[in-house]
Amino acid sequence: MVNKKSCLVIMLNNYIDIDDRLEKLLTILEKNERYYAEDAVVHYSGDESKNLYVVKEGWFISYTDLYDGRRMVIKTHHPGDIIGFEGIYHEQPADLKSTTAGVLCPFSKQNLDEIFRCSPKLSALLFSISVREQIVATDRLKAVSRMGAQARLAYFLLDLIFRLRITNSSMTNEFHLPLTQTEIGDSIGLTNVSVSRAFSYLVGMQLVKRTNASIKLLDELSLMKLCDYEDRYTKMDTSWFPCD
Amino acid sequence: MVNKKSCLVIMLNNYIDIDDRLEKLLTILEKNERYYAEDAVVHYSGDESKNLYVVKEGWFISYTDLYDGRRMVIKTHHPGDIIGFEGIYHEQPADLKSTTAGVLCPFSKQNLDEIFRCSPKLSALLFSISVREQIVATDRLKAVSRMGAQARLAYFLLDLIFRLRITNSSMTNEFHLPLTQTEIGDSIGLTNVSVSRAFSYLVGMQLVKRTNASIKLLDELSLMKLCDYEDRYTKMDTSWFPCD
DNA sequence: CGCTTGTTTGACGCTAATCAATCGTTGTGG
DNA sequence: CCACAACGATTGATTAGCGTCAAACAAGCG
């Protein structure tokens, strides 16, 4: 593994200085690797949650199936993300699968314990990240509960690109979107049909361009206005974090 | 303050053993008290977020106003809750106000720092609580994005009573609900009109009884079935928590 | 008593769901 | 290389549920 810096370190380094000691603490999390083909199930809801995962490569989604057969996508996961905080409960509350070929680094809850014991600073950061996810979930709720189909789709696309930019600073305004319209709809409470129509609308308004599964955001400002989008990823108050 | 045990300690004690040392650490958080009349604003979104709060008495709600004048209620807060984790960002992302007369104990972010430095175990618990809030937010998203008005209202009422039971073990199946139907609607993405009709439906089905602002859940099981409700509050895996 | 605030009820319209047919692309096997 | 199957995207017609508007009703309060 003569590798460039791990995505996880890049991601965390956005917020606090990851020195050698912390980096060593984190490498433990990425010691093991598991490869997944496209559309492979990682775990099912109800499974015992032994592991969390760092995403090393590829896209993954967590989702739950409703009693009536419909599906709800809870979250998409990209390189640098940590999956499975929810697993601190007894069981996995959701299914997890890949939507492209990819690599995960599984690690156990006990490794978290080590972080909490050895680094108050890193603990505070993990806590902050978890809180941020809550804020993002609230934003999504706002979009889903209060906005029309076009605005919801705009929100979805913007949130994706902002998240991808965290670990990929070379990301411009174009990205590959390896999800079906049904999966997109399951993320924002729409049917595949409505997603298709909303896409047509955004394309017609010259806000978005599509070629195959590649999405280009032509006018980010207008898109942000359309759904009242606010960036939750770049700024975080770390001033109160304890030193190690 | 010749007081019974603090609500915060009761709440946290559900999950880990709060010994004298930890209790002392926590009393700092409840050192100061501030009284609020009904319908008093605690802070506005955009305010500098110096403080977090422990709810000592009364109901509070956090909310944001949309550009078109509509409002969205993010969360209701009850005695024992900690408000303001979101404030670890630079600004308050939401408004906060009381819906009854109440008492808050403000404390600063620096007090959190102390907890993270002095107690890995408590850090892990706070982290877990934050993650739980995420899971709850996901459940709410499921209800709001995928269910009809009656099911959404059922979800709202059930989630309330389950949360009230955390700190009030004498809570049966009846509780006082100090919110207008507009506020309820703003919590679950409905108009006041639809909330009214959904209430009529639940009452007609003998699932709920209303007298003034008091709500009695007559048939919790049917309500849970109606909205596929799952309790997220009573079980939590604390086995991986570090010792202090 | 009259004002204010919240709830209820009815009529109507709009948005997205549903149902269904068609089109396009990809991958497979003859 | 072509035929066909499988899957996803698109488009159209229809429907259902909730929003909107508006009026009536109820309860508290000065």
Structure description:
Two copies of one chain form a homodimer. Chain A is 41% helix and 20% strand. By secondary structure, chain A is of the alpha+beta class. Chain A has two domains: 7-118, Sandwich (Jelly Rolls); 133-227, Winged helix-like DNA-binding domain superfamily/Winged helix DNA-binding domain (Arc Repressor Mutant, subunit A, Orthogonal Bundle), CATH 1.10.10.10. The interface between A and B is large, with 51 and 51 residues. The first copy, chain A, binds a DNA duplex (30 and 30 nucleotides) through residues 148-149, 180-182, 190-197, 199-200.
**CATH fold assignment of the largest domain in chain A:** Jelly Rolls
Count every beta strand of chain A, where a strand is a DSSP E run of 2 or more residues: 11
How does the helix and strand content of chain A classify structurally?
alpha+beta
List the secondary-structure elements of chain A in sequence, H or E.
Answer: HHEEEEEEEEHHHEHHEEH
Biggest interface, residues from each chain: A-B, 51 and 51 residues
- Specify the overall morphology of chain A: globular
Provide the CATH architecture of the largest domain in chain A: Sandwich
CATH class call of the largest domain in chain A: Mainly Beta
Low-pLDDT runs of 5+ residues of chain A are none
Give a short account of the largest sheet of chain A.
Answer: 4 strands, antiparallel
> Ends of chain A: how far apart?
29 Å
Q: C-alpha Rg of chain A, in Å?
A: 18 Å
Number of domains of chain A: 2
Quaternary assembly: homodimer
The mean pLDDT of chain A is 93
Strand order of the largest sheet of chain A: 1-8-3-6
* Helix fraction of chain A by DSSP (H/I, runs of at least 4): 40-55%
Corresponding CATH superfamily of the largest domain in chain A: Jelly Rolls
Q: What is the count of helical runs of chain A?
A: 8
